[in-house]
UniProtKB/TrEMBL annotation:
<dbReference type="InterPro" id="IPR003959">
    <property type="entry name" value="ATPase_AAA_core"/>
</dbReference>
<dbReference type="GO" id="GO:0016887">
    <property type="term" value="F:ATP hydrolysis activity"/>
</dbReference>
<dbReference type="InterPro" id="IPR050747">
    <property type="entry name" value="Mitochondrial_chaperone_BCS1"/>
</dbReference>
<keyword id="KW-1133">Transmembrane helix</keyword>
<dbReference type="InterPro" id="IPR027417">
    <property type="entry name" value="P-loop_NTPase"/>
</dbReference>
<keyword id="KW-0547">Nucleotide-binding</keyword>
<keyword id="KW-0378">Hydrolase</keyword>
<keyword id="KW-0067">ATP-binding</keyword>
<dbReference type="Pfam" id="PF25426">
    <property type="entry name" value="AAA_lid_BCS1"/>
</dbReference>
<keyword id="KW-0472">Membrane</keyword>
<comment type="similarity">
    <text>Belongs to the AAA ATPase family. BCS1 subfamily.</text>
</comment>
<keyword id="KW-0496">Mitochondrion</keyword>
<keyword id="KW-0812">Transmembrane</keyword>
<dbReference type="Pfam" id="PF00004">
    <property type="entry name" value="AAA"/>
</dbReference>
<feature type="domain" description="AAA+ ATPase">
    <location>
        <begin position="241"/>
        <end position="373"/>
    </location>
</feature>
<dbReference type="InterPro" id="IPR057495">
    <property type="entry name" value="AAA_lid_BCS1"/>
</dbReference>
<dbReference type="GO" id="GO:0005524">
    <property type="term" value="F:ATP binding"/>
</dbReference>
C-alpha cells in the first residue's frame, strides 16, 4: 500500500490537473493547435504531392525558337463555348510588340508596321481542346549576356491526364508561325553574339525577277539543288556537308538580290554577316557560324574586308576590331563551322582575295556577276514593259541606243568601251519611267556611269545646278 502511494499520488496529481478546467482548456487548445498545424502541414504535403502527381509543367525560355510561336499562338483569338469559360480563358493582360520594316526586299519605299498583341507578364488561363492550361509568363532579373535582354520564360501547366496536349499545342503553334511566314524569307543578322531576324520576314522575291546573264542563275540553282539532293553521298564519304559560292563583281549587279531570291526559292532563310561591319571580330564570326539558324543560307558580304586586315592574332590572342584573313578561313572550315552549310560570299574586289580562300569546301564555285549585258537589258525591259511593247519594237530601239552609247562594252564599230552600266542602274531608269517607255528610251544616256560622262556635263552636275 505504502509503495503504491506515490504513484497513486502522481496519478491523482495528474487527474487533478486534468480536472482543473483552466489546465484542461489550455491542453485542449494546444493539442488542437498541434493537430491543426499537423493537418496543415499534411495538407501542404498532400497538395504538393498532388500537384506533382496531377499536374505537368512545360517551361519555354525566350532563347528557344518555340518561344515566339507560343506567344503567337496565345495571342490568337479563340472561341470558347460558354460565358464563364470564355471569361476565364480570355487573356486580359496584353503586351504589344510593334515591328516596323521596309516593305519588299529593297531598303526603299514606305514602311509597313505590324502590331502583335501577346499575353502580358503574369498568370493566364487558356483553353486548348478540352483542357485548361495555366500560362505564366515571367521576366527574370537576370539578363542574357549576349544581347542584354532580360531572361524570360513561359510556363504552361495542365493536368497530368492531359499532358499529351503539349505536343499538339506546340505543333499547332508551329503551324501558325509557319503559316505567317509562308511566302516570306526571313533574313537573320548578328545582334551581339546571336542571330536575330532583321525586321519582319520579307515577301519572297521571285527568282525570275533577278536577271543574271544567260545561264548564270540557272547554273547556280542547279548546283545548289544537286548539293541538297546528295547529302547521303557526303555522309557516306565522311566529307563535311558544305558548299561555298563566291559571287564577285561591281556594285549593283544583283548579287545580294539573287541570293535572297534563291533562299526564297529553296524555302531557306538567310543568315547575313557583313565582314566590313564594325565590331565583327574573328571570335564573333566563328561563334556565330557554329549556331546558324536552321535551314538557312549563310551570306558573307564584303569578304575582301578580311584581306585588308591581314594582321594575325597578337601574342595575347587579340586579333583586332575586324575579321582577319585567318579568322575568316578558320570560321569557314575550322571545327567550329557546323556540319551542314551553304555559304555565299560576295565581294566587289576579287583582286584583293587570297587564293587560299578558293579551295573546295571553302569556295566550290566562283562566278562573276558583271555589268549589264544585252541579254539582261532585254530581259529587264520585258519585265517592265513587256505588256505594252508586244512586238518588241521599242525594246529593239532601246537596246540599239544602249549599243550606240557603248554601254555593252563596245561601240557599234567594234571599238571597246568602258562605259558599262549596272543592272541596278537599268532598274532605276525603268522605275523612274514606270508607265512611259518612250522617255526611258530618251533618257538612256543617264545610264552612262558618271566618270565617263563628257567633261562639260561633269561640271554641270557637280554642284552648279540647284
Ligand atoms: N540582275 C538584276 N536583276 C534585277 N534587279 C537587279 C539586278 N541587279 C541589281 N538589281 C537591283 O538593284 C538593286 C541593288 O542590287 P543588289 O543589292 O542585289 O546588288 P549587289 O550586286 O549586291 O551590289 P553590291 O555589290 O553593292 O552589294 C536591287 O534593288 C536590285 O533589285
Ligand atoms: Mg550586295
Amino acid at each position: 500500500m505504502a509503495e503504491a502511494t506515490p504513484s497513486t499520488g502522481s496519478i491523482f496529481g495528474l487527474s487533478s490537473l486534468v480536472d482543473n478546467p483552466v489546465f484542461a482548456g489550455g491542453l485542449g487548445i494546444a493539442s488542437l493547435g498541434a493537430a491543426a498545424a499537423f493537418a496543415r502541414k499534411g495538407a501542404l504535403v498532400a497538395v504538393g504531392l498532388a500537384r506533382r502527381r496531377l499536374l505537368v509543367k512545360v517551361e519555354i525560355g525566350k532563347q528557344d525558337p518555340a518561344y515566339p510561336w507560343i506567344l503567337g499562338w496565345l495571342s490568337q483569338p479563340r472561341e470558347n463555348p460558354g460565358f464563364i469559360a470564355s471569361r476565364l480563358t480570355r487573356i486580359h493582360d496584353l503586351a504589344i510588340t510593334t515591328a516596323t520594316s521596309p516593305r519588299g526586299p529593297g531598303a526603299h519605299g514606305p514602311t509597313s508596321t505590324h502590331f502583335a498583341l501577346q499575353p502580358g507578364y503574369g498568370r493566364h488561363i487558356v483553353k486548348f481542346g478540352n483542357s485548361y492550361i495555366a500560362v505564366t509568363r515571367e521576366k527574370h532579373s537576370t539578363a542574357n549576356m549576349n544581347t542584354g535582354e532580360p531572361h524570360e520564360i513561359v510556363q504552361l501547366t495542365t493536368l497530368w491526364a492531359h499532358r499529351h496536349i503539349f505536343e499538339d499545342l506546340l505543333k499547332e503553334a508551329h503551324r501558325l508561325a509557319a503559316e505567317a511566314n509562308e511566302g516570306k524569307t526571313i533574313v537573320y543578322s548578328a545582334r551581339g553574339m546571336e542571330w536575330s531576324p532583321l525586321g519582319n520576314a520579307r515577301r519572297k522575291r521571285p527568282l525570275g525577277s533577278v536577271i543574271l546573264d544567260e545561264g548564270v542563275g540557272e547554273a547556280i540553282v542547279a548546283d545548289v539543288q544537286d548539293f541538297l539532293a546528295t547529302q547521303q553521298w557526303y555522309v557516306d564519304r565522311g566529307i563535311p556537308y558544305r558548299r561555298g559560292y563566291l559571287l564577285f563583281g561591281p556594285p549593283g549587279s544583283g548579287k545580294t538580290s539573287f541570293i535572297q531570291a534563291l533562299a526564297g526559292e529553296l524555302d531557306f532563310s538567310v543568315a547575313m554577316i557583313n565582314l566590313s561591319e564594325r565590331g565583327m571580330t574573328d571570335d564573333k564570326l566563328a561563334f556565330l557560324l557554329t549556331k546558324l539558324p536552321q535551314r538557312s543560307i549563310l551570306l558573307l558580304e564584303d569578304v575582301d574586308a578580311a584581306f585588308v586586315n591581314r594582321r594575325q592574332r597578337d601574342a595575347d590572342g587579340y586579333s583586332g576590331a575586324t575579321v582577319t584573313f585567318s579568322g575568316l578561313l578558320n570560321a569557314l572550315d575550322g571545327l567550329s563551322a557546323g556540319e551542314e552549310r551553304i555559304a555565299f560570299l560576295t565581294t566587289n574586289h576579287i583582286d584583293r582575295l587570297d587564293p587560299a580562300l578558293i579551295r573546295p569546301g571553302r569556295v566550290d564555285m566562283m562566278l562573276r556577276i558583271g555589268e549589264a549585258t544585252r541579254y539582261q537589258a532585254a530581259q529587264m525591259w520585258d519585265r517592265f514593259y513587256g505588256d505594252v511593247d508586244e512586238d518588241h519594237s521599242a525594246r529593239e530601239r532601246f537596246l540599239q541606243r544602249m549599243e550606240e552609247l557603248g554601254l555593252f562594252g563596245a561601240f557599234p564599230d567594234g571599238t571597246p568601251s568602258h562605259r558599262q552600266t549596272s543592272t541596278a542602274a537599268i532598274q532605276g531608269l525603268f522605275q523612274f519611267h514606270k508607265t512611259d517607255m518612250e522617255s526611258a528610251i530618251e533618257q538612256v544616256q543617264g545610264l552612262i556611269p558618271r566618270k565617263f560622262e563628257p567633261e562639260e556635263s561633269m561640271v554641270e552636275g557637280s554642284g552648279k545646278t540647284p
